[in-house]
């Protein structure tokens, strides 16, 4: 298969798995869990925050071990197949979750989310095998773009189910969509098999890698400062992703159809934001571009608090979408610039660890504040602090000058 063919097949998996992200994590199941499973009670937000936090804690803990498997084992594809199947089967099983079945609603979501997130470890590990280092950022960007397109395609497919008030059926649609469009990767993308002899358990290797990374990280204070900033502001991004549907539904009274239009708006502007701010980043630098996206996020949070009508909340969606894609992709680009070439794999593993573990605190704080105050507006206010802390720490990060950037990327 040609290089372009490999890249297309690889990005098609991103097209496939976002059906889970948009339908289950962000939109329909998130709303269904609060309104139906938890009977619309404020404690539903707390339950949902527990579910998301448990899934991400488990994933954060096992990610280094999975990373060791990806680096040392001879079969990334079979592990990716396992976790993909785990996510698909658990997602389809959400169809049986109904009012009052809170335990199974949480359990199946946690298993599905672990399958989704853990699978990404092996999916990402294919990147060096399908393109050259100089094209990592570009090809990775193609994956993001295909992901947003996948979200739009999924939303278009489930629209008839939403209008017919058949929300539970959309979980099966999401699973089938993921299944169909993930198949090409398993059929056509070859797995580079390694012949490394491993004489230790993968658990020991995984733990050893994390300790080794922590030990080396203290010698790279600038990089450590960025990772700390990333931990806080991506915390805010993750919280918005997990609770935006619930917020629009509970606080503003959005119907499922209105939510569909809202998320189509968000996904569309996410594509535009990724492209436009990607060009801006090449011109003014990644750090300044991330600062712009964080200011957009703070404006988004402020508007979400003060706006009380549905029409105004679409403006919030426009801003959130434009900031979402860029804040994620530009962070990865800046990480590449700050990381020593000889330690890219080691530090990017830690970058992934920070990204996953950061999806714990924000949702938990949102759910707890919402439950204790019975106000999602106060809960969304708490999200702004994560962006503020991340922005403050980011100002301490020194971005490499052009000469160093070229040297690091070679």
From TrEMBL:
Record's subcellular location: Endomembrane system
Keywords: Membrane, Transmembrane, Transmembrane helix, Transport
GO molecular function: transmembrane transporter activity
Taxonomy, superkingdom: Bacteria
Ranges of residues in domain Major facilitator superfamily (MFS) profile: 7-402
Gene Ontology CC: endomembrane system
Signal peptide: none
InterPro entries per UniProt: Atg22-like (IPR024671), ATG22/LtaA_families (IPR050495), MFS_dom (IPR020846), MFS_trans_sf (IPR036259)
Topology versus the membrane: Multi-pass membrane protein
Gene3D superfamilies in UniProt: MFS general substrate transporter like domains
The keyword Repressor appears for this protein: no
The keyword Transport is annotated on this UniProt entry: yes
Transmembrane segments: 7-32, 47-67, 79-96, 102-127, 139-159, 171-189, 223-244, 259-280, 289-307, 347-372, 378-395
Full protein name: Major facilitator superfamily permease
């Amino acid at each position: 298969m040609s290089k372009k063919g490999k890249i297309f097949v690889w990005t098609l998996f991103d097209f496939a798995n976002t059906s889970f992200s948009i339908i289950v994590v962000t939109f329909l199941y998130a709303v269904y869990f609060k309104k139906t499973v938890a009977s619309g009670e404020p404690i539903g937000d707390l339950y949902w925050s527990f579910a998301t936090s448990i899934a991400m804690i488990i994933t954060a803990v096992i990610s280094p071990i999975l990373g060791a498997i990806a680096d040392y084992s001879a079969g990334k594809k079979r592990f990716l197949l396992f976790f993909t199947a785990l996510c698909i089967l658990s997602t389809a099983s959400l169809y049986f979750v109904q009012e009052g079945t809170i335990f199974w609603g949480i359990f199946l979501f946690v298993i599905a989310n672990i399958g989704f997130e853990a699978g990404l470890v092996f999916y990402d590990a294919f990147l060096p095998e399908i393109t050259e280092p100089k094209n990592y950022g570009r090809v990775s960007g193609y994956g993001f773009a295909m992901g947003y397109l996948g979200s739009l395609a999924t939303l278009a497919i489930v629209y008839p189910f939403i209008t017919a008030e058949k929300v539970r059926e959309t979980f099966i649609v999401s699973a089938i969509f993921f299944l169909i469009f993930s198949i090409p990767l398993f059929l056509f993308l070859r797995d580079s098999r390694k012949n490394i002899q491993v004489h230790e358990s993968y658990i020991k290797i995984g733990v050893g890698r994390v300790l080794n990374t922590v030990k080396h990280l203290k010698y790279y204070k600038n990089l450590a400062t960025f990772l700390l900033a990333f931990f806080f502001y991506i915390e805010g991004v993750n919280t918005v992703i997990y609770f935006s549907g619930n917020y629009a539904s509970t606080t503003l009274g959005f119907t499922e159809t209105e939510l569909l239009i809202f998320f189509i708006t968000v996904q569309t502007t996410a594509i535009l934001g990724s492209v436009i701010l990607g060009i801006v980043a090449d011109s003014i630098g990644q750090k300044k571009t991330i600062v712009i996206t964080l200011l957009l996020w703070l404006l988004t949070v402020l508007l979400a608090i003060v706006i009380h009508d549905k029409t105004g909340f679409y403006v919030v969606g426009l801003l959130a979408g434009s900031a979402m894609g860029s804040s994620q992709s530009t962070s990865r680009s800046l990480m590449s610039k700050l990381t020593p070439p000889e330690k890219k794999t080691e530090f990017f593993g830690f970058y992934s660890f920070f990204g996953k573990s950061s999806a714990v605190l924000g949702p938990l704080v949102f759910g707890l504040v919402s439950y204790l105050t019975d106000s999602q507006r106060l809960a969304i206010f708490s999200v702004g602090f994560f962006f503020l802390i991340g922005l403050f720490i980011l100002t301490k990060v020194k971005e490499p000058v052009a000469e160093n950037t070229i040297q690091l990327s070679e």
